[in-house]
Structure formats: structure tokens, C-alpha cells
Specification:
Keywords: Cell outer membrane, Membrane, Signal
Helix content: under 10%
Number of strands: 47
Subunit structure: Component of the lipopolysaccharide transport and assembly complex.
Organism: Bradyrhizobium barranii
Distance between the termini: 96 Å
Number of helices: 4
Largest sheet: 27 strands, mixed, barrel
Main location: membrane
Pfam family, one: LptD
Strand content: over 45%
């Protein structure tokens, strides 16, 4: 280049738009080379960009604009540099000094960029920084690539990706347009320390060589070591993992370890198979020291309108005798578990859950993951596995749900578990007024069957003599004074429909009057098996009945408001009068869905205080109380409610003895109910205190008392609940129950949390469940440790079993998560 030409270039603006002219071939090569720079990120799987043929070459001496223009893929590249040199003799083009290249969404910055037409190489050096359209940033000291970006090398490489993963190497060599080899490479998903960026990250993987196969999207580590805070803790001669761009990849997952008495020690080595974008499988054989290999497989598929999954399990036990006398004392054990849900449209979904097992202790004995304790531990809490098929629809003011259900009993008494086919619920609130008020209606249809009656003892004599078992020598001993009939044998069908109307008026004095009315009808068909003792509770054989319950009532409220400089207080007397006939067929039909009865302030003003449809409250009743709410201007509120219920006339439904004595010992089983009260205080968003109580109507003795306090701070939280419950002999609770339940967590450091909870039975003076745990969580690492104990109870006279479980979990973001657990049980 002549001196005159060089001087002319020096006088040009630092921003130059390049469009090929006489140097079309060189500029085309330069464009290819810039694309090669972008593709070096191919080590992180960035697609190559190849420019079209160059057509012209001009300079633009205009001053720079605030932002570089958005250049489409129309053969244009924006170059900014202190100086651009053209060496015709050596066929080189050089950009020197604060070089910036912009092309197709990718920018390259360096101290110097040279393109050699003879060798067809692009060479960038000095503070090289390349940013692609996805936000990935590549740093280097020297970058050298061929113009077709298939071969090249980079010295002192560091890559930061958009998903916060990082890789560094002393040198990276790219070959065949697909393979990138990192010498002395380091990989991590942890952010550098803000105070000291040179400090080693929480974890990193170093490898003598890290090979990135861009086509397979795999990273292969040779002579690798895993370091925590720069300290090596594990050495691996070889391992591989999908690169961070991969969300699903066929291959082995991290193993898990577990132990339990029935199978000894076990190691689980999962293999994941990405069959297609919409389906996959996981094979998880568990090799156990005592029983052999437990085969597990899970298939999942996502469709346009939903998804489903199927799990299968099977094991040919080597030592069935280890479970002698238990359901697992057999050679082959297995199960099939499936679930799915699909959307019909934006309002309707249908789905299923299903499980079939060789024996009801299979999941418990092998601590299978989907039936672990909700705390996340491997502690197994026996419950019933539910199989169901359902259809659900939700409208703006309506709801529909239909499902058929089958429970697999873990107690072994499968004949005592009902089959529900089906239960259907529908409710709707009209969006227009009827006689000026709100009109709503709801329906419920239930059909279920059970093979064998379910009796429960409620007296010491029954507990001792096992008078409630179906093998009792004297079936007449099974009477409502000795036992409860919790499940009725035979078939039970009920159709319920109820319409409700209510409207509120406020008179000139501020009094609020709310008249309401409802009409409920039940059609019942019961076919009860004549099993021993059942006739002492209900008529056996076929029985049909129609039950009608009309109701009218009036609710009155008169709020008094007192405003003070510190806040306001509202005192509101409430009275409710309900008129209706006696409950038809009270206690004469099965009670399957209304077995729970707790009377407190939450249902003081409920028109029907039964929890389900099988019982309906009858007779005239008045509910009265007073409510006070104080709101403080500086924050905080106090709410108090006190009241009582009165049976005005007719039959008191809560005095009727049915199959499970619902309502007896509830505080409602007398003309004047027990007093109920509650109070809550929230001084701010940090603290919450509440008490709930029921006191005897004559003696004021506490029949039920609960006190709860919660505190939530930035670094710690704690809660405690105290409960004291009087005996309820008609329901089988022969002694007073008293206990404390506590839980808490504290953030001991920026990322460390310690949690714990305990349940203390004050009557037995022992802690019958406690949980201790600690965990560490940040943007790249998870560590969790839990220790859990609890008692589980079996039917009959078997003593409670104390279960112990320990679980350890570690997770490295983008690499793997591994778990280990140990559990045991012993009688207490």
C-alpha cells in the first residue's frame, strides 16, 4: 500500500462500511472468516453463518451513529477500527486498534484482526471478545481459523453462555468443522466470586482434554477431576455428559444408593432413552445385596393436548424368606403404575391414575420414589394407592367433576375398601339475579360398593376382646355401644340435588338482613349385605327412600364502627334463624362421606354443619354470636368471634346415633350447644397468633383448644401449635389428647438452611415424630440432608412401628443429581 493511500485511510472515520469492489475476493474471505469466529462458539453448538457473494466495495466517511445499524444478510459487514491496512503484495487485509466487526447478529472485538488470502486464515489477537446472537461470549488472546471455519485454534479461551455455564482452556483446536478439543479444560455452571473473580468456583470439572462433539452435542472428559472450592474430591479417568444446550439426551444418569432391611443395600443406575422429541423412557435397574435385581422402567409421552406415563416394576426375589409371614414372602413381586391427563379444550380435562401390585407392601418394602414421604425423604408412610378415571370442567361460575375410584389398601383388608363408580358433582351460580338475589344449585351422585363390613372398636372391652372383628364368636356384641360401623357391606347409591337462594338488604339504620331459602332432595337406594353384626346398625337387604329437606332462614347483622386516631373497631352482632322439618331417615342409611364432625367458629353460621351429603341437618336452629374486628392504622389487626347454637324445635340431628355416631360428643348434641370462640392477632406481616376453643355449655370446661403462633423473618421462621382435646367416648377416644407440634427453619448463611419439626404427645410424654434437615442451594449446586422418624400404625393389635429414614441428595447444575437413602423400622 502506498504512503498516500495509507494516509488517506488514516484520515477516514473510524467506522467503515465494507462492500467488496476490487478486493471482492479478499472481503468475501474476511466475511467467511468472521462467520468462522462465530462458529468457534460451535464448541457450544452455534450454527455456522456463510455470507453470500460480495458485489461492491466502498467507504462511508460519514460520522458514526449512536448504534450500529441492523444489517441484514445482504453481503454487508460493519467494521470499526483505528486503522485498516491493505497489503497487496502479501494479499493481506488488516484492521488494527479497537477493532469491532458486526455481522449477522455477531460481533467480534480485538486489538488486531488479519485476513491472509493466500493461506485463507483469519487471525485475531489481543483481548478477543466474540458475542453471538444468543448472548454467548467467547474470550481469547489469540484466535486463528480457516476461512471455511472448519479448522483452527484459540489460545487462552474462555466462554460464557447465556444459560450461565462457563468453560476455559489454555488452547482449543477445532477440526473437521465438528470437533473442538480443549487442552487443560475447565467446566463449571457456577458464577465467579464477585469479591474475588480469581477464586475457584464452588465446583468445577477439570480435564486434561475436553472434547466437544458438536454433531452429537456431547462433552467428553479425559483424566478428569471434580473440585470443590479448588480442592479435588473425585477423580475419573473418563466420563461424558451432554453439552449445556441439550435438554434431553440418551445416556446413563447419576446412580442412586439406598438401603432397607427387606432388600439390604441397593444401587440404582438409571439409563435415559430420548426416543423422540415427544417421548422418552428411563430404565432404572436396582441391584440389591439381598434380593437380586429390581427392574424398573418408565415411559412418558407428550401429545398435543396432554401427556401420560407408564411405570413397570418387577423382581424375582432371591430371599423371600427375609419377609416370612409378610405379604412380600413370595418369589415374584411387581407393579404397574400409570397416570395421564388431557385437555378437551380450555375448560375441560380428563385423565386417569392407576396402580396394580402383586402385593400391597411392594412399594413400601422397596421404597419406590413416587410413593415417598412428601418431605422428600425415603420414609414410607402407608396410605392407599388410588386408581381413578376422571372428567373435570370449570366455567366462570360453574364446576363439574366425575370420577370412578378404586383404592388399593396397604393394610391388606382389600375387601373392606369401597369401589366408587362413580361420584359426580356439579355446581353453578347463575350470573343474573333471581327475585333480586343470588341463585345457585348443585348436584351429587354417588354409587359405591364394598364386600366386607368395617368395624372399629370404641370401648376398652371391644379393644381387648376384638369384638369388632368379623371372626368374633358373638356378632351381637357388635353394637353401636361397642363398635363403630365405618364401612357398610353391599351397594349404596344416592342422588342429591339442591337449589339455594339468598339476598342481602341494608336498611336505613345500617342493619343487614339476609333472607335465604333452599330445597334439597335425595333419592337413596341401599342394598346392604346381611353380615354378622350389621343388622345391629342398619336394616339389611334392599331399601329405597326419598328424602326432602326444605329450608328457610334469616340472617341478621348490625355492625357498629368506632373510629379512633389509632385505628378502627367494628363490633358486629350476628343472629341466624333456620326453619326446616326433622331430618328424614336420620341414622337409617349408610354414612360414607359425612363422618367428620368438628364444631367451632368456622362452621358456627353454616346452615348445614355436616361435612358431606349422607347426613342432612334438620329441625329448627338458631346460631348467634358476636364478631369484633380491630384494624390499626400502623398495621396489624385483631379479630374475635364468640357464639353458640340453639336447637329451637324438632329433632336434633346431632343427637342421633348412626353407624359411626357422627354428631355425638360434638358439642351440638344438646339443646344449647357448647360455646365456641376464636381470636387471631397479626401485628404485622411477620407474626400471626390464633386460638380456637370450644367450652362446655354448663361447666365452661374446655372441650377443645388449639393455640398457634407463627413468625417469619428474613432469615428464619418458626411455628408452634398446641392442641388439647377432651375425651369423646362415643367416637372411641377414651382419654384426653394433648400435644405440641413445632416446626422451624433458619437461614444460617446466604445459601444454607436448617429445618426441623417435632410432634410431642404430652399424654404419652414422648416425641412420636421429628424431622431434622439441612440444605444448601445456589445457582449451580444443591445439597440436602434429612433425618426423619415417625410411627405407623397397623390394623388390629399390632404395636406401632417406629420408622427411621436418612436421605442425602447432591446436585450439580447441568451435570447430575444423585441421591442416597437408608431406612429401618423397629417396634416400640
Amino acid at each position: 500500500m502506498t504512503a498516500v493511500h495509507r494516509g488517506l485511510v488514516s484520515c477516514l472515520t473510524q467506522r467503515t462500511v465494507v462492500r467488496a469492489n476490487g478486493y471482492g475476493l479478499s472481503i468475501r474471505r474476511l466475511l467467511l472468516a468472521v462467520a468462522a469466529v462465530a462458529s468457534l462458539g460451535g464448541l457450544m453448538d452455534v450454527a455456522a453463518v456463510t455470507p453470500a457473494s460480495a458485489q461492491s466495495f466502498t467507504y462511508n466517511p460519514l460520522p458514526p451513529r449512536a448504534k450500529p445499524p441492523k444489517v441484514a444478510n445482504d453481503n454487508q459487514m460493519l467494521v470499526q477500527a483505528t486503522e485498516v491496512d491493505y497489503d497487496y503484495n502479501n494479499s493481506r487485509v488488516s484492521a488494527v486498534g479497537n477493532v469491532q466487526l458486526f455481522y449477522n447478529g455477531t460481533s467480534v472485538e480485538a486489538d488486531k484482526v488479519i485476513y491472509d488470502q493466500k493461506t485463507k486464515r483469519l487471525h485475531a489477537e489481543g483481548n478477543v471478545r466474540m458475542t453471538d446472537a444468543d448472548g454467548k461470549i467467547t474470550y481469547a488472546e489469540i484466535l486463528d481459523l480457516s476461512d471455511d471455519y472448519r479448522d483452527g485454534f484459540v489460545d487462552s479461551l474462555r466462554v460464557d453462555t447465556a444459560d450461565q455455564t462457563r468453560m476455559a482452556a489454555s488452547r482449543a483446536d477445532r477440526s473437521s468443522g465438528n470437533y473442538t478439543v480443549f487442552e487443560n479444560g475447565v467446566y463449571t455452571a457456577c458464577a465467579p466470586c464477585k469479591d474475588d473473580p480469581k477464586k475457584p468456583p464452588l465446583w468445577q470439572v477439570k480435564g486434561a482434554r475436553i472434547i466437544h462433539d458438536q454433531q452429537e452435542k456431547m462433552l467428553y472428559f479425559e483424566t478428569a477431576q471434580l473440585e470443590f472450592f479448588g480442592v479435588p474430591i473425585a477423580y475419573m479417568p473418563y466420563f461424558s455428559t451432554p453439552d449445556p444446550t441439550v435438554k434431553r439426551k440418551t445416556g446413563f444418569l447419576m446412580p442412586g444408593f439406598t438401603s432397607n432391611t427387606p432388600f439390604g443395600y441397593g444401587v440404582e443406575v438409571p439409563f435415559y432413552w430420548a426416543i423422540a422429541p415427544d417421548m422418552d423412557m428411563t430404565f432404572s435397574p436396582r441391584i440389591t445385596s439381598r434380593q437380586g435385581v429390581l427392574f424398573q422402567a418408565e415411559y412418558r409421552q407428550r401429545l398435543m393436548d396432554g401427556a401420560y406415563q407408564i411405570r413397570v416394576y418387577g423382581i424375582d426375589q432371591l430371599d423371600p424368606g427375609a419377609l416370612a409371614g409378610q405379604p412380600g414372602d413370595r418369589q415374584f413381586r411387581g407393579a404397574v403404575d400409570t397416570k395421564g391427563q388431557f385437555a378437551l379444550n380450555d375448560k375441560w380435562v380428563w385423565g386417569w391414575d392407576g396402580v396394580v401390585m402383586s402385593d400391597y407392601y411392594f412399594f413400601s418394602d422397596y421404597r419406590l420414589s413416587q410413593y415417598r414421604d412428601p418431605l422428600g425423604s425415603f420414609l414410607y408412610l402407608p396410605t392407599d394407592a388410588l386408581s381413578q378415571l376422571y372428567l373435570t370442567g370449570v366455567g366462570n361460575r360453574s364446576f363439574f367433576d366425575a370420577r370412578t375410584m378404586y383404592w388399593l389398601s396397604y393394610s391388606g383388608n382389600q375387601s373392606q375398601v369401597p369401589i366408587v363408580y362413580p361420584v359426580i358433582d356439579y355446581s353453578n351460580v347463575l350470573n343474573y339475579p333471581v327475585f333480586g338475589g343470588e341463585f345457585s344449585y348443585k348436584t351429587n351422585f354417588t354409587n359405591l360398593s364394598r364386600d366386607t363390613a368395617v368395624f372399629d372398636p370404641i370401648t376398652t372391652l371391644a379393644n381387648t376382646a376384638s369384638l369388632c372383628t368379623t371372626t368374633s364368636a358373638d356378632p351381637l356384641a357388635r353394637t353401636p355401644s361397642q363398635c363403630l360401623l365405618r364401612g357398610v357391606p353391599g351397594t349404596y347409591t344416592r342422588l342429591t340435588a339442591e337449589a339455594q337462594w339468598r339476598k342481602s338488604y341494608t336498611d336505613p339504620f345500617g342493619e343487614i338482613w339476609t333472607p335465604f331459602a333452599s330445597l334439597r332432595a335425595d333419592a337413596i337406594n341401599a342394598s346392604i349385605s346381611n353380615q354378622p353384626g350389621v343388622s345391629n346398625y342398619l336394616p339389611v337387604g334392599d331399601t329405597q327412600a326419598f328424602r326432602l329437606m326444605p329450608t328457610v332462614g334469616l340472617e341478621y347483622r348490625y355492625p357498629f364502627i368506632n373510629v379512633q386516631p389509632w385505628g378502627s373497631t367494628t363490633i358486629e352482632p350476628i343472629a341466624q334463624v333456620i326453619i326446616r322439618p326433622n331430618e328424614p331417615y336420620a341414622g337409617k342409611f349408610p354414612n360414607e362421606d359425612a363422618q367428620s364432625m368438628v364444631f367451632d367458629t368456622s362452621n358456627l353460621f353454616s346452615v348445614d354443619k355436616f361435612s358431606g351429603y349422607d347426613r342432612v341437618e334438620g329441625g329448627g336452629r338458631a346460631n348467634v354470636g358476636v364478631q369484633s374486628t380491630t384494624q390499626f392504622d400502623k398495621g396489624g389487626a385483631v379479630k374475635v368471634l364468640f357464639g353458640q347454637s340453639y336447637q329451637l324445635f324438632g329433632l336434633n340431628s346431632y343427637t342421633v346415633q348412626d353407624t359411626i355416631n357422627t354428631g355425638l360428643d360434638s358439642g351440638l348434641d344438646k339443646p344449647r350447644s357448647d360455646y365456641v370462640a376464636s381470636a387471631s392477632y397479626s401485628p404485622n406481616s411477620t407474626y400471626t397468633f390464633s386460638v380456637r376453643s370450644r367450652m362446655d355449655e354448663q361447666t365452661w370446661n374446655v372441650q377443645r383448644f388449639e393455640a398457634e403462633g407463627r413468625a417469619n423473618f428474613n432469615r428464619w421462621s418458626v411455628s408452634m401449635m398446641y392442641g388439647n382435646y377432651a375425651e369423646q367416648p362415643e367416637l372411641g377416644y377414651l382419654t384426653r389428647r394433648e400435644g405440641i407440634l413445632t416446626s422451624g427453619s433458619i437461614k444460617v448463611a446466604a445459601n444454607w438452611v436448617v429445618t426441623g419439626s417435632a410432634r410431642w404427645d404430652l399424654e404419652a410424654n414422648k416425641i412420636n415424630q421429628y424431622v431434622l434437615g439441612a440444605g444448601y442451594v445456589d445457582d449451580c449446586f444443591v445439597l440436602g440432608v434429612n433425618y426423619v422418624t415417625s410411627y405407623s400404625y397397623s390394623a388390629g393389635t399390632a404395636p406401632p412401628v417406629l420408622n427411621h429414614a436418612f436421605m442425602f441428595q447432591i446436585g450439580l447444575r447441568t451435570l447430575a443429581t444423585s441421591t442416597g437413602s437408608s431406612s429401618s423400622a423397629g417396634y416400640q
